Amino acid sequence: MLGMFALAGGAYAGAVFLGATDPLTLNSGYQPTQPVPFSHKIHAGELKMDCRYCHVNVQKGAHATVPPTATCINCHSPIGPDGAPKLSAVHPASEKLRAVHESWESGESVPWVRIHKLPDFVFFNHSAHVNRGVSCVSCHGRIDTMDKVYQAKELSMAWCIDCHRNPEPHIRPVELVTKLDWEPAEGDGTREEIGAKLREELGIHPQTNCAVCHR
Amino acid sequence: MQAKQLPITSNDTSGSMTGAAVALSDSVSGKKIASTAKYWRSVDELQQTPEFEQFLHREFPQAASEFPEGVSRRRWLKLMSASLALGGASGCRYGPVEFASMVVRPPNTVPGVPKHYATNFELAGRAVHLLVSNVDGRPIKIEGNPEHPLMKASEPNDLSGGKERFASAGTDVFSQGCILGLYDPDRTARVTRVVDGQVEEATWDDFSAFARDHLANLKESQGESLAILMSPTLSPSVSRLVADTVKLLPKATVASYSSVDNSAQLAACEKAAGQPAELLFDLNQAKAICCLDSDLLGNDPNMVVYSRQFSKGRTPALGKMSRLYAVESRFSITGAAADSRLAVRSSQIGAFIARLEQRVDELLAGGSPVIAAGEEAAFDRITPAEQLERTVEAMAEDLTKHKGEGLVSVGSHQPLDVQLAALRLNQKLGNIGKGVQLRPSRSAIEGVTPVSLSDLTDALVKGSVDTLWILGDNPVYTAPGDLKLGEAISQVKTSIYLAEFEDETAAVCTWRVPLAHQLESWGDVLGADGSYGICQPQILPLLNGKSQCEVLSLLQGQAESGEAIVKATADKISGKPLLARVWQESLHNGFLADFFVSPLTGDVQVEGAKPAGTLNLESFENGSLEVLVTISDTLFDGRFAKNVWMQELPQAMTKLVWDNAALISPATASILKLKQGEMVRLVRGEQSIELPVFIMPGQALGSITAHLGYGRVCRDEAVDSDEQVVVGRDIAPLRTFENLSVITDIEARGTSIPFKLATTQDHFAIDELGLEETADRAGMLIREGTVEQLDEGGADYVEHLGLHHPPLESLWEEPINTFEGDPTIPYQWGMTIDLNKCTGCNSCVVACQSENNIPVVGKEQVSRGREMHWIRVDRYFRGEMETPQIVNQPVACVHCETAPCEQVCPVAATVHTEEGINAMAYNRCVGTRYCANNCPYKVRRFNYFNYGTEYGYFYGWQQKGKIEEASRKLQQLVLNPDVTVRGRGVMEKCTYCIQRVQNGKITARNSGRPVQDGEIQSACQTACPTQAIVFGDLKDPGSRVSKLQKDLRAYAMLSELNIKPRTLYLTRVRNTHPRLKLSQQLAEAHHAEAGGAHAEHSGEHADNAHASDTSAGVVGHAGETKTGETKKEVAH
User: Fold this and answer.
1) For residue B105, what is the nearest residue in chain A, using CA coordinates?
2) Chain B contact for A86, CB < 8 A?
3) Residues of B in contact with A123 (CB under 8 A)
4) Which residues of A touch B994 (CB under 8 A)?
5) What is the pLDDT of residue A20?
6) Which of these, B845, B882, B947, B973, lies nearest to B179 by C-alpha position?
7) Mean pLDDT of all residues in chain B?
């Protein structure tokens, strides 16, 4: 009887441990509060700004890069000593933009909180994916509908490998990678069919060996 | 079968040397030397001492998992409980991480993508031309600048066939290591002054205010009481500022002191050319190269250029094969590369050159060379006197045969008459203006005649100097002991020192101002060919330093910026104000275009007396020993003593780390009754020093070599310790101003005080048991032959050198075969290492350490066999104790296609990629170490501790100790962000620089093209000054690596195991003069001649028994014949 309890207890502890350490539980849904309540829903969704207006290096390097303060200031320039904003005046006096304006004046970084983080032994390269037609939405979800960004996918190794083994559903024409709400037009076939065709054309052969990501 | 060594029987073993060696072995271990020894790595191995056997039987000797000394059980418990507590507290998800985004991002920057900037500076007396990789504003890796004209002209591996390819330039070890110095928190960070015997902190403003008053005072007396002490400089800006100072203060004294003594060589050049001049050799076309105590490929300031040029002349496939002679007292890098070597005391080099000159004169006057009468005894079977006779004869013959295509070089420390004799020989042979060039001195300063350090010290003692400026380089430490420079300086009223560290010189000066690192400062340098290169800062000064130029400008009351100073010099050099465009181009390219300095032409005055002295290679007396003081391969003159990469870098020939020693030949040690690992006292008059004995075969009889640069504080030792560690012993007390390098009349007294030296030479021994087995097997590891064998052997050449075995077949289909045929896998990576080009200079080892974040473990851990270097340079001796040859073999992971390590890993942490790289997934490794046990090459390294954080020397930023945590974090900045920092309990090894491969592939792919040959180069390859290492794609038949793998010298190490390594070696080929061949060389030649009969007497082997040997590792080209026909253009 006691043995059975111990067994049941062990099984329960195991289940809790496995459940608690599953990447789906651990990582997805992480939604920290940012110093500036920047809404991707307004900028990328309603205003239809391209992702690359801010994340300029996504096609050039490993990091998509968080924009420098100067990018924000292009539109949200603070009010100068003469009472007028220097560049363009979108909410120049908004309290929500205080951290941005402080950064602009002091030269200190805006302390953005990182949401999507891979372990230190994983080396992910944005340019290798985006230039092959893998859209932002595949890993980040519908950012253009998020007021406050959260991690939508688990970003675990199994999840990465799923796509490396079967990339077709995630490949679209390269010029459409930042169009997060893209759906194949009628008559063009399914995502898989379009993906398979592009894969053939571009010679996309993702590898699944350790050294692809672990260096 | 294996080329069997002719047994050396007692009747042909003659001469006192062998007797001495046997006597030594009796005295040390009582064991007999196995007479079949063909290759051996150390005296320990040859004699099979218990220490060696321990390393052989147990890959990691004795209690490999023990904590290092200094970590108590209590501390271990503390560590364990702390990590448990941390594990509980921190939960499962990582905490919040902040981005530090820029406020304004500079144009053309992509965070995380390295930029490469050209720069040139003077480092350890060498002009270096570099490309620095800069990631997010932080320099992290040094490479050579292949665009520099000096490097372009000496491109060694020109297999391109006219196709444009990515080149590499190579560097020396100091350039590779200097990046670590940049992030050294021990560097001077504050301006300090001494007031009333107390050290006070000051600021740069205080210093400039002081400098203004100071200058006003000096001007009144026209600088009569001012002296400037500097090293000879190659920087035109520094020269210009010193010249300006002397113009401003005409009565000032300038003293010049170089810790590496080359005054006699400069004096000889000046006498010969009639103006301040220096020597530059051109090894590009040289057919006969004679180095007399001269280490052109090692210690020489131009070693990178010379190594490249030398390597160019060592390509048998292109029919180029020079002949290199080395006559020297210590075993130098040049000596190891030489075709023939003779050990002669440094103090007898003069007598040697006199004899050579006499013989050359005779031959030039129409004498005929001595022709061997019938079969002669091998070179190692004759007496030293006969060896000397034959060497002189062969050298004279080759030099006169190749008039105008040879060169004679003598060590810069040799006296004036020897220097003149060498110039005279070169002139008689028509080499001047060709292989030997006299060039205008780069370090001469206009209007300044420097005085010697000895004169300066006299002036300081007399009190005629009130003010002393010391422009860096720690002269108090490097000065000879008899000058007592420190005491003299401490008597001076005002002494200003440009301090890199708070060192011995800083301790006696009244003002210490922090000197900026070369990577932080503006500057310039004149290259060996006179080209002008600018040093541009890679980062703003981290520790508040200023460059030499800026401080000199401050002292002149100008306070100009470094950039303005250098620009003014550049304008002056080019004779007109530089256009902004030209200036930008010069910065970008790393040199000023269309600016050349021609060699001096005109009459050369080389008259002088013949060097006197006797030649005695057979005996010596205790009391008349000589000590050759030479710079350390790793620490130079001590200026890299705080650089732990350099401290842990095995010295080129001894493989010693963290120490210097008295290098003594086996026979000398036996006669003096000295034993390895005991202290010896070296006495000269009233002065004496103690050094541990290190028995080094190949040292000249009666000559002891000692390295400069030791006896200094390095860093705090281990965990939780405030102790400062003095590494090695200072040899300054023995040096005098008159005898800086060659110190004679030394008496050696054994002390029988034990001393533990750490050497890596027996670590990771591949061999099985027993020396006899070693002798048989070493031939499989390193293969070596002569030019004649290569000519005669043809396509079978390499197999004759190796082990013969039946054809090797796998029982099942290897997965790699499928990958090789798969068109969706575009690349198959591979490497070749040319043993004929490798000089063993160690650049690859430091480059790998820098690129791959390899930790430093310290002497105590190294002596347990735990060094972490991913690439090691194995040094094999060959032949007899007193006349050995050395072969160097760099060994890193060879990426076997059927890798034994992969088959035993229980967690699949090491697996193959489709492209043939044996990958290591650190996060999966559980540390069973099975893989290391199963690796036949012994290239895997295990992290016994968190060397990266809590234990270890440089990156240990979490460890407690003297250095504050913030400073420790400064050290971390040297880490390459593209490579994982490994933790405790994880195995690691060479990855073929997988980060470079992956990034190179992504870059090429993003621009829609395949990776080009040479676009991806491993770190060891870019650092190699001889281009011995070539990495590339084996699937491309036109790539350099594919061509080299099909060279008839290519072989796979341990090919009989059928593990198909992707790294192939190219055999060493010696072009030894027929009369100087050692018995092994003769025996092998004999074997090769009998090659026809070979197949018959090993009848059990099929005819194609050789086939698998070299085709292993060559992918996709089975059946293609080998290329690389040998043409006869060889110096015979």
Assistant:
1) A68
2) no
3) 978, 995, 998
4) 211, 215
5) 54
6) B973
7) 82
pLDDT at B966: 65
Do residue A212 and residue B998 have CB atoms under 8 angstroms apart? yes
- Looking at beta carbons, which residues of chain B come within 8 Å of A69? 101-104
Q: Are residues B70 and B956 in contact, defined by beta-carbon separation less than 8 angstroms?
A: no
β-pairing, B523-526 vs B678-684, is unpaired
- Looking at residue B795, its pLDDT comes to 65
pLDDT tens profile B18-64: 333 333 333 333 333 333 446 766 666 656 665 666 555 555 544 44
In 3-state terms, chain B is what percent helix, strand and coil (to 5)?
35, 20, 50
Residue B460 is predicted with a pLDDT of 92
Low-confidence ranges of chain A (pLDDT < 50): none
* Residue that is written with structure tokens 């530059």 in the block: B280
Residues of A in contact with B980 (CB under 8 A): 120-121, 214-215
Nearest to B734 by CA among B702, B708, B695: B708
Q: Contact B167/B157 with Cβ under 8 angstroms? A: no
Q: Cβ of A211 and B919 within 8 Å?
A: yes
Instruction: For residues B480 and B731, give the distance between their C-alpha atoms in angstroms, rounded to a whole number.
Output: 9
Q: How many Cβ atoms are within 10 Å of B432's Cβ, its own excluded?
A: 24
Which alpha helices (DSSP H) does B102-167 contain, by range? 149-152
Tell me the pLDDT tens digit for each residue of B898-953: 899 999 999 999 999 999 999 999 999 999 999 999 998 899 999 988 887 766 55
Do A61 and B94 make contact, defined as CB atoms within 8 angstroms?
no
* Partner-chain contact A209 B979, CB within 8 Å: no
Interface residue B978 vs chain A (CB under 8 A): yes
Residue in B647, B858, B607, B622 with CA at minimum distance from that of residue B750: B622
When computed from its CA atoms, the radius of gyration of chain A, rounded to whole angstroms, is: 22
Whether the Cβ atoms of residue A58 and residue B111 lie closer than 8 Å to each other: no
3-state class (DSSP) for residue B1122: coil
Q: What's the one-letter identity of residue B868? A: M
Whether the pTM exceeds 0.90: the reply is no
For residue B98, the 8-state DSSP code is B
Nearest CA in chain A to B99: A112
Q: Which of B110, B920, B922 is the closest to A57 by Cβ?
A: B110
Nearest-by-Cβ selection for A215 from B100, B104, B978: B978
Task: Choose between B839 and B373: higher pLDDT.
Answer: B839
The verdict on A63 touching B (C-beta cutoff 8 Å) is yes
B1002 shares contact with chain A (CB less than 8 Å):
yes
Interface residue A21 vs chain B (CB under 8 A): yes
Q: Flag whether pLDDT at B131 surpasses 50.
A: yes
Q: What does the block give as tokens for A196?
A: 């398979």
Give the residue from B697, B680, B702 showing the smallest Cα distance to B627.
Answer: B702
Q: Which residues of chain B does A113 touch, with a Cβ-Cβ cutoff of 8 Å? A: 96-99
- How many helices and strands (H and E) does chain B possess? 37, 43
**Interchain CB contact of B808 with A (< 8 Å):** no
Cβ within 8 Å, pair A68-B99: no
Percent of the residues in chain B that have a pLDDT greater than 90, as a whole number: 49
Phi/psi region, residue B261 (left: phi>0; alpha: psi -120 to 50; beta: rest), is: beta
Do B922 and A119 count as a contact with CB atoms less than 8 A apart?
no
Contact B1001, B827 (CB under 8 A): yes
